[in-house]
Amino acid sequence: MNVSLILIILLFGALVTYLAGDKLASKVALFFGLAAAGCSIVLLNHFNLGENISYISQWITSPKVSFALKADGLSLAMVLLTTVLTSIIILSSFGNDFKNSKAIYSLILFMSFAMTGTFLASDGLLYYIFWELSLIPIYFIALIWGNGDAEERKKAVVKFFIYTLAGSLFMLVAFVYMYQKAGSFLIEDLYKLDLTVNEQKWIFTAFFLAYAIKIPLIPFHTWQANVYQKAPTLGTMLLSGIMLKMGLYSLIRWQLPLTPLAAKEYMYIFIGVGIAGVIYGSIVALRQKDLKKLLAYSSLAHVGLIAAGTYALNLDGFRGAVLQMIAHGFVVVGLFFAAEIIYRRYETRIISEMGGIRSQSPKFTSMFLILVLASVALPTTFNFIGEFTVLYSLSQINIWFALLGGTTIILGAYYMLKMFQHVMLGETNTKVFAYVTFSEGLTMIIIIAVLFFFGLYPKPINDLITPSLEAILNTINKYN
Amino acid sequence: MAMDTNLALVLLLTPFLGFLINVFFGKSLGKSVSGIVGTLSVVISFIVTVSFFLQINQTKQAITIQLFDWIQISNFNVSFGFLLDQLSVLWLLFVTGIGSLIHLYSISYMHDDEKIHSFFAYLNLFIFFMITLVVGSNLLVMFIGWEGVGLCSYLLIGFWYKNQDYNDAAKKAFIMNRIGDLGLLIGIFILGGLFSTLDFASLQTAIAGAHNVDTLWLSIAALALFIGACGKSAQIPLYTWLPDAMAGPTPVSALIHAATMVTAGIFMVSRMHFLFDLTPEIQTIIAVIGGVTSFVAATIGLVQNDIKKVLAYSTVSQLGLMFLALGFGAYEVAIFHVITHAFFKACLFLGSGSVIHGLHGEQDMRKMGGLKKAMPITFWTMLISSLAISGVPLFSGFFSKDEILMTAFHHNIPLWVVGSIASIMTAFYMFRLMFLTFFNDFRGTEEQKHHLHESPALITFPLIVLAILATIGGAISLPGNSWLNEYLAPLFTKAASEEHGLGTTEYILMAIAVVGGLVGIGIAYAKYIKQNTVPNEDAEITGFSKVLYNKYYVDEIYDSLFVAPVNSLSKFFRDYVETGISSLVFGLGKVTNELSFQGKKLQNGSVGLYLFAFVLGMCAIVSFLFLAQ
Amino acid sequence: MNNILTQIGIENYIFLCVTLFCIGIFGVLYRRNAIIVFMSIEIMLNAVNLLFVAFSTYHQDAQGQVFVFFSMAVAAAEVAVGLAILVSIFRNIGSISIDNLKNLKG
Questions:
Q1: Which of A91, B390, B486, B541 is the most exposed place for a label (fewest CB within 10 A)?
Q2: What is this model's ipTM?
Q3: Across B279-359, where does the E strand assignment appear?
């Protein structure tokens, strides 16, 4: 089966959605989102049967760039995450009434297309193109459909755009340099390159700048909270649920195997950066007034831990990081959606203006609580599996890493429960909290079901990603 | 084997089923039915437990059940597995047994609450997690239960969620538990890394056979596990959440914060005894912390006026005694006290609940008094339990506490002194509680006096059962002829060495303990019956009592040491560091902008200037070319 | 062919060219009239062309002369376009003094 079919579905879907008109757009988009998800499941089936899922054709002769897609377990897991979350995000926005909705839904599918491409591309330049392409739709989504003061928003979104773009340029330079040496952008050829330690250090840094801004790691995170707050929730979900996973995925796929010597030399520093992000993000989250900003900082903390796991350069670290990426994708989408559900009713995102929702809507409160608990990695939720594995891998490097990274379970509980207390509990709110609608409930239940299912039985994902992670580790350890 | 698996699943999943029914249909079932469903699901678990108990008591064979793989780590797999051995079944017996009684009690106690169905849902969920904790065959499955009971504790402490103070207490309990949980996790990491397994049975063989392992790591692991136990079992320095946890409904305090969840730490240490046996220095730490906790909590308990707070500090103090025993490797002694404590403390809490129920929510002992006549059953059952906890001979607490003190005496005299003084204080404050509540004249309002009544049968029945158990519970481990020690013998290989004959020393020790207890009761009698003293109003408390009444200001100290700094750090980060980094990034943009603004001025549109620059540039190039040659 | 060079000498050609070129530069820098500036540029161009031809002869290589043809063709095109622009500017603002042409101010 041709792997590019999934890209074609999404791109075609974006076009059809735009042509379908404002009324039908959401449904058409959902259809194509589901079709893409279905397609990725079919791909998964083929992959499990042992087929080699790749597609390659010559694209540009000079410089030699090919349209090369290749799906291994890791890519498939990420593609599955992208397509499923895209569908969930589209479903979740059924309750919103967008101006010019055909455009926004079309942009979502287009973004999904670009992100899927990023996860599948096995040619450096193609990957870079998809990487940058995904920036365009989110720029428009945040700019046009965002909320708050237009000037402020423009400032935040433009900052985000330029910042990430600037970071990516370093990556492009690194790619061009490697192309000079290897004569090809294909990942297999790049993996084979024998770069000196010095070269690797430069390339490592260039990649790091691109990814650290995208993920974001401290201190490159300043765009995040503002954009998360100002973008429409759907955009925030795309950003936090999928887009930042692009950066984390790229660490594993591109940065570390391409520059193993530098990675090994620097690993302690960057584990440190990740863990510093955990602590810093958690502490900043404590005193946020805006619900979406709080969730943004919690996200900062979690991705810090994931990045630390990645830089641990062992199988557990990689595996835990990928599991946590997927888990975090779902939980963060759920939490932002919960914020949106509240916003639809109270028209506020300020925590102090909420409270007392529990007595009005116990069902919503239960769902919200489950998401909160998943986010603080209670055992039996998916997040626990990821967090446990990552922390275990860190503990095998140095117990202090595990201890410091583990503060997330204390600080995380602190800010999340504090938030829960002020958002949900307390005296009954005077404002009316309308019933949770069918599409809202369905979205939440799907997310919760995923979190519990894989929390109890993570084996399928584990089996899927482990071989490809081992292969990548072999590349990293090729000098030994 | 299949039979066992099914039965174990019934044992585990019935409470969970009860939880699901109450969550989804609780409201439509009605108050009584929802309570009955909740109670029945635990009773079924209890029955299954009894059958397991009979089986194991006979065969002396542990039952292991493996379900399916859960987490894969590079050097080991963790699976969902259950281990039903002497220890876990014993724990299950009183978890489900006392659990059933407390469920029964709650049907009546919570009857007026509109959210009774969620109350039962949470209680069922708690039982489910507690069973998971106890029967887990490896550290991680135990950890599921460990965190799960913490969650239920959070939900139940904050059950009356409209009151933000209660929510604060719930949050505090959860977070302090999580501090311990981090310790537990670190311990798990170390053990997993060293021995490539988390399974209790395999760990035991691995640790026993590990001669080339650095004992320092074993000690760190043991210490980390003990920190976890400190969190859950409310030991210094992580004990402050337990008194606050009294914000929850009284049955919750009885079930979770007295009888079952808080003993999880003792359970875990007993489970991992093979590790602690190898790390004597950590055992010493455990004994010292246990002793000190027992003493400190008892001193605070002396002056508390909230009936539930007294019991809460008493619980902390008793848990301290159990850790004291654990520290000396006397696991079966600690377990014995866990069991007897579960009986009399649950009874005391339920009795206090009955009192609070009768007084429509009044918890301050200064506004009680003279309830003996109005609430005879409550009075007698509580009296029996107070005698038990004070260590009056022939009541259950006498045997268990005496064994702890005896063990302490044989290992460490100072700790024996500390424990004994704590016991005397226990006797004093328990009878202070009894005298203030039930004797003399009623000090509440006329309105309350008018409504004084004994609680209904659903409330008194559990009290009576527990009081009987509190009386005769000591029979399971009589000195010299201990059924419990024999029952647990397969687990604790060192148990035999801990048995002491009943010599003169032992009788003297016993006498000291009994006299001490009676002295404590006597002082209380003299002060609160003879002199008819009523504790001062809050404002009038002075001197050292004030320090005690304010719990040594530990909460305040923790607040200013940890909570406040973190919060101000958060504020500092949010207001300054964030803006600082942000302005750095913006600064980069601004510099570019400024440069281009300056550069723009060159483009002044004067063609003459352009031409001049053009010529100048050309000259520069030419001269450069010449110079380069 | 060589006799012209032997009679006059290559240095004199170079001096002439440099002089012409400098005259052109001064014209460009000094005059404000766009047409005169234009003419000065032409002088500079032709100075170079002359040099090309001289060296071409000196080296016995026809390439230089070929190049001159190209450059003359380009110059012619440039003049055509440039003068057209000047005419258009004159029509618009009624002046061709370069001091008045400030529309390119950034």
A1: B486
A2: 0.91
A3: none
